[in-house]
Amino acid sequence: xxxxxxxxxxxxxxxxxxxxxxxxxxxxxxxxxxxxxxxxxxxxxxxxxxxxxxxxxxxxxxxxxxxxxxxxxxxxxxxxxxxxxxxxxxxxxxxxxxxxxxxxxxx
Length: 107
Known about the structure:
This protein is mainly α. It folds into two domains: 53 residues, no CATH class; 32 residues, no CATH class. It is built from five helices and no strands. The longest helix is centred in the middle third of the chain and has 13 residues. The protein is elongated, with a radius of gyration of 21 Å. The chain starts with a helix and ends in a 14-residue tail after the last helix. The model has no long low-confidence stretch (mean pLDDT 79).
């Protein structure tokens, strides 16, 4: 179970999903799947809600080459629109830091 918990945090999926997938790929028998689910039910610490916010996510490496698209007339706004992202999210994924000051309302 500890190995599954480690894989769970690495890939950002639940331990239960990993057990299901191992069965789906026939890496373990039906009996082993049942036994794993029984152990999982008995071990409350592995069956907690696993927030996705703790998972860092994948880093799209091809987006690092996005500036090359500008040479063909494909703008950043076009790219953000194509990905259904905001331009600020695109900049964040590309690792760009917004150096502009943050404005806030003071009363």
